[in-house]
Write a structure and sequence with these properties.
single chain; 419 residues; alpha/beta; Rossmann fold; two-stranded antiparallel ribbon; 40% helix; transferase
Length: 419
């Protein structure tokens, strides 16, 4: 049984941490030269993986960033919505005044008018009277809360009908070495000490960390190397830091009445992708997808986080048929011509799943189709162009279906939502 005083002590430590070292460390002036892109909460991902490319882009979108920190997800999504002149409101909630001030300064630098900031705790959402949301982002937050299940259940109650969420939690195997050092530092720098004193101890440890320490062998993250004081503190000194295997994560979702529409990237959780042995693949294929995902995590060992788009149970959106002539394929971020250039002469696409690079086979014709995907041309128009090059309708359908299925699972080619 958890000691209530221990919970309070850790919660106080968390509050002190994020006031002293808002995370992640960001300079608002950097917004003049770059936009940080990631998952979850990329607009094209939300439209496809949460709403199944069925929700009109003209329909207003209400977004909650639950625990926005210094604002990475909020700034990315609000910027994408503003660039598309979309009707939207992005509400950012965090209990750290310092973190909110940084996120707000970033929004001011970008002159974003579709975003507002509310100081408050996720454990007291009802008192904030924020209403319902079409989409909720809760990235890197649940694993720091006293009761993640209760917190996620609360967020579910604030979803509008047919709404969904983007979530991220830490995973254990890709963070090998982190928890060993956290244990050592809690003995050397108890959470009752000031954040400054604890950070000083962590710095001293890192200067002379033994060569055999597992953290030195782990290249799956770099907060302790390039994340500044905030990154080092959050990685090694966070007073409450849980991690979830994919099985644990799916259980958490189930307890909150939610189910995933996609794990990011979907192909990453398919062990057959990196197990070419036919006999092994024959063993894998009949297994439940949840078991396959667990095998992928167990074998690769490099998943440091799990990212998922989720909806309420039995509310999984029905996505459009990619062979529909009126469907409009769209690149998630990397232009099609650039992706085609990455293909090797033997029609492999080297794909990075974190530190793991897997050669993914594509049909040879994908090299010619990818540069044609501009977010405006329909599948029917792509077929017409390929017909002029000697590819008949039957062949096109076969090649396009195979290409789309692969690239969708890599989260590189999606379908555009209707106007």
């Amino acid at each position: 049984m958890t000691n209530p005083s221990s919970v309070d002590e850790r919660d106080a430590g968390l509050a002190a941490q994020y006031e002293a070292y808002p995370y992640p460390e960001r300079n608002p002036q950097d917004e003049t030269r770059r936009l940080l892109i990631g998952s979850p909460s990329h607009l094209r991902e939300i439209e496809y993986w949460v709403f199944g490319a069925q929700r009109p882009r003209s329909q207003a979108l209400r977004v909650l960033i639950a625990g926005c920190g210094t604002g990475d997800a909020a700034i990315m999504l609000a910027t994408q919505l503003a660039r598309g002149t979309r009707q939207a409101e992005v509400v950012c909630v965090d209990r750290s005044a310092k973190a909110l001030s940084i996120a707000q300064a970033r929004a001011q630098t970008r002159k974003l008018e579709n975003i507002r900031f509310v100081q408050g705790s996720l454990t007291e959402l009802e008192s904030l009277e924020l209403g319902l949301f079409d989409y909720i982002d809760c990235c890197g937050v649940l694993h720091h809360l006293p009761d993640p299940v209760a917190a996620l259940q609360t967020l579910e109650r604030y979803l509008a009908p047919m709404g969904g969420m983007g979530l991220m939690v830490y995973a254990p195997y890709g963070r090998t070495g982190v928890y060993m050092l956290q244990d050592a530092l809690e003995k050397l720098a108890p959470i009752t000490q000031s954040p400054e004193a604890r950070l000083d101890t962590a710095r001293r440890i890192m200067r002379t960390l033994p060569a055999t320490a597992w953290l030195r062998q782990n290249g799956n993250f770099g907060d302790h190397l390039s994340g500044g004081d905030a990154g080092l503190y959050d990685l090694l000194l966070n007073p409450r830091d849980r991690s979830y295997t994919i099985t644990d994560f799916l259980t958490l979702l189930d307890q909150a009445g939610l189910e995933p529409t996609a794990l990011m990237e979907p192909a990453r959780y398919d062990p057959a992708l990196f197990l070419p042995d036919p006999r092994l693949r024959a063993h894998i294929t009949p297994l439940p997808w949840q078991t396959q995902a667990a095998i992928a995590e167990d074998l690769t060992g490099n998943m440091a986080t799990h990212v998922a788009y989720v909806v309420r149970k039995n509310a999984h959106p029905r996505k459009p048929n990619p062979l529909d002539p009126d469907a409009v394929p769209i690149m998630r971020e990397i232009p099609g011509a650039e992706l085609a250039k990455q293909m090797t002469p033997d029609n492999m696409l080297p794909f990075h799943f974190g530190t793991l690079v897997v050669p993914v086979p594509l049909p040879p014709q994908a090299r010619g189709i990818l540069p044609l995907i501009d977010g405006e041309r329909t599948v029917g128009e792509l077929a017409d162009i390929l017909a002029a090059r000697g590819v008949n309708a039957s062949k096109f359908n076969h090649v396009w279906r195979e290409s789309f299925d692969i690239l969708e699972r890599l989260n590189r080619v999606l379908l555009r939502a209707p106007a």
